[in-house]
Amino acid sequence: MAVVSPPPGSIPLSRSPSPATSSPSSPSISSSMQCSSKSRHGSRLRIVSGFGIKLRSSADLKDGRNASLKLSGGHVIGSVGEKEEERWMGGDGGRRMRRKRMVVMMCSAGLEGIGGRSRELAREEGFVIPERLKVVALVAMVMCLCNADRVVMSVAIVPLASRYGWSSSILGIVQSSFLWGYLVSSIVGGALADRYGGKRVMACGAAIWSLATFLTPWAADHSTVMLLAVRALFGLAEGVAFPSMTTLLFRWFPGHERATAVGISMAGFHLGNVISFLVSPIILSRLGVNGSFSFFGSLGFFWLSFWAFGITNDPRDSPRISQAELHLIRAGKTDSKKEGSKFPPVHHLLSKLPSWAVLLANVANNWGYFVLLSWMPVYFKTVSVLNLFMVYNVNLKQAAWFSAVPWGVMALSGYIAGASSDYLIKSGCSVTQVRKIMQSIGFIGPGVSLLCLKYAQTATVAAVLMTIALSLSSFSQAGYFLNIQDIAPKYAGFLHGITNSAGTLAAIISTIGAGYFVQWLGSFQAFLTLTAAVYFGTTIFYNLYATAEQVFF
Length: 553
Prior knowledge:
Belongs to the major facilitator superfamily. Sodium/anion cotransporter (TC 2.A.1.14) family. The protein is mainly alpha-helical.
């Protein structure tokens, strides 16, 4: 509830005075809001609803002291001014009294970032959670499950490889099989999300990947070929997650809040790593491989029950959203319901260098990300440092702990990156400059950290370097990830799908390649050096050709 008390010594705004008692200079309010107050001393001004508020008075403020109350993003949420007014007060003497009063009007759009207070009173008294906060919370949850279900295999791969006698090369193929389906569905999922909305596409994907998670241990017992098929189905379903997330956040958040929304969603994604790395070994030790896959698979169906009734594809379809919040979200946007009516022009999207800048950035990001995701537990179990005689040789539970810590820090740093990006833009930095700064941090930092790994002589030092690499790589979320929405807002989901498919192809190559490097050379170091080189080269290209100006209309 937006409640503004009058300053000490002033007489509060009274309710609609009658003509006999009001002066010619009493203010008239032109806005889509209702205002009420009590006429006795000490009453408060209560704003019921409205947006785009502007105060008008038949008599201008004599001292000229008035100001606009604005969001940090520049949206006017009200105005404040001080005026001197003459009014007849009651009493036999009919005495005349002059007074000054402060007039303050605010609307429910007055949010300071995503965490700002909602001042919407249309339905009931008290605090009302903005609908877009519910959306980002549910998106963060499903992204958490998306990644947690992936990581179950990264932890279970160690006992599975021991049970079935897989070599490092076969292990790499099993790890990469998830990416085979992921490669295809990213593009299709992006086009479907743009056209039919991210809610439906995300729901279908979550249902299928949860089922595939259940079936994974059964498939492994049946045959390696069946396991590869189920993992490919799992990847096919998960490929729609990021394009659907991109489409939903673009429709539900204004530009000055979008980086923070992405940061929150990606924090959920990275927390999925932490949860799965910590919980999976416990379940594995007590219930076996089947127990861990069954547990995480069931969580997906539990989440679906909230997703089905909690949000809508577009804020205009929500029965619970306030007009003020809808106005804030829709300001400056075109009709997103019509944006997906045509199939996106693929050749046109790939004809511009800014598209290639975000595409190659996704390639480099996925190359490094999936190497670390797929091989980190194995790395801490077997990696040689400096020479083949110095081995960390930690057990699986310790490896999971060492693997979980970097992802937890990454979740926090990803949110910091998003909030910092929004802050810099609000402070006057160009969007292009901010995107390049964030992306440079997201690539140069991890590259340097990976190069330093060869000097690590203990598991703790290696874990610290891994943590630095992953935490800094999360700054890419405020770089190329958001840059896709900048250059092609109309086709954000589809372009994200294209770049994600290219990144997935790179992830397949890097995941399988890492397995062969380990088998041939007995060390991860050479491959980590190659990964650092990929980071550095892509940073140069991105800074040369990336832009935040809209390229595709």
